[in-house]
Design a protein that fits this description.
EC 3.5.1.44, five-stranded parallel sheet, about 350 residues, Rossmann fold, single chain, 11 helices, about 35% helix
Length: about 350
């Protein structure tokens, strides 16, 4: 085994610190080099120990995790996995953390069963491994929507195609960046981001309040239309049905596909079955794994226009890479160019 991943655990609860260190004691490629009960101790330990990855609690005394993260990302950017409480009130703080440059997050396990804890441990180890190889963006100023550059909405803004976007790790930020470059009267956009239920509502609300177009969490029977972006509901696959020329969302709680629900594969395939090739554009953004790649290949083979995010602008070049290697991608583009390309293709 090569060099181990050096991990620093930052959490104010001695119980959680002990539990997390036990999770990593079982892995032979990750070594816990230190633990810190608050951000001030963490700062000293980062200097002393030069860890590769940090796990960070969102809520802590003295200085909360977000304040610490924002300082860290300005002064010494490094891969951080947030360990948060998966609640409606915790969701905005976790989304803030991702906006500041945290690579990923995981919910603290509820002490319900050994099986659940085993799943948590496995997921956390995976996320730390992935974070160790992730591209961390230093904290920059937050971009604002393009005002003025966007043509005023007119009655004749017509789009021929629905744009379907798949993403995972690093995706909440990539989606926000991408939508900043899209006109207010945007093509119909449907997005499957791997995200838990309470987060999808919070994420959609946040985008809706910061962007000129309407952004909604998917709901049964919600219409896919111009000027509207729809985010898949956490824990439900996003499928579609047609009624005449109109397309509507269908929420499906069938088995996970590629270990995910919502799954990008399910969304791409549903559109592929429903729509002719000249009515769809498919986009793959940053993410771990290969969910959606095979379905994107099926779309591509039918003649659907396809784009994927390039390696240097992706936090994790997993899903776009898998699609690219299958020959499913027409153009590999930096994140900054995707909005214009997909909007042009949708016309």
């Amino acid at each position: 085994m090569g060099n181990k991943i050096r991990l620093l655990i930052v959490d104010d609860s001695i119980l959680i610190r002990k539990m997390l260190s036990e999770v990593f004691a079982e892995s032979d490629d990750i070594e816990v080099v230190g633990m810190a009960a608050d951000p001030f101790i963490a700062r000293e330990k980062i200097k002393q120990l030069s860890p590769d990855v940090l796990t960070l609690d969102v809520e802590m005394p003295k200085m909360n995790g977000l304040q610490f993260l924002s300082n860290l990302m300005r002064l010494r950017p490094m891969p951080v996995v947030m360990v948060s409480t998966l609640t409606e009130s915790g969701a905005p703080a976790t989304l803030d953390a991702l906006e500041m440059g945290a690579v990923d997050y995981i919910a603290k396990p509820k002490a319900e069963s050994e099986e659940q804890f085993r799943k948590f441990a496995e997921q956390l180890r995976d996320k730390v491994r992935m974070a160790a190889g992730a591209r961390v963006q230093p904290l920059a100023g937050v971009r604002k929507p393009r005002v003025g550059a966007v043509p005023p909405p007119s009655a004749n803004t017509r789009y021929k195609r629905i744009v379907a976007v798949g993403s995972s790790t690093g995706g909440t930020e990539a989606i926000r960046e991408m939508l900043l470059g899209v006109p207010a009267v945007c093509p119909p956009i449907v997005i499957t981001q791997h995200i838990p239920p309470v987060f999808s509502a919070s994420f959609a609300m946040r985008l809706n309040s910061n962007l000129p177009m309407e952004v909604l969490e998917a709901a049964e029977g919600l219409e896919v239309r111009t000027g509207r972006v729809i985010i898949a509901h956490g824990d439900y696959h996003l499928r579609f049905r047609r009624d005449g020329n109109s397309v509507y969302c269908v929420l499906d709680d069938a088995e996970k596909v590629n270990r995910h629900r919502p799954s990008v594969e399910v969304m791409f395939d549903s559109l592929g079955e429903l729509m002719p090739a000249d009515k769809v554009v498919a986009v793959m953004l940053t993410g771990m794994g290969a969910d959606g790649a095979a379905a994107m290949k099926r779309l591509h083979d039918k003649g659907v226009k396809t784009f994927a995010q390039d390696e240097s602008s992706s936090v994790v070049w997993g899903m776009p890479r898998a699609a690219y290697e299958l020959g499913a991608v027409d153009e590999v583009l930096p994140l900054a160019s995707i909005a214009d390309s997909m909007v042009d293709a949708a016309r």
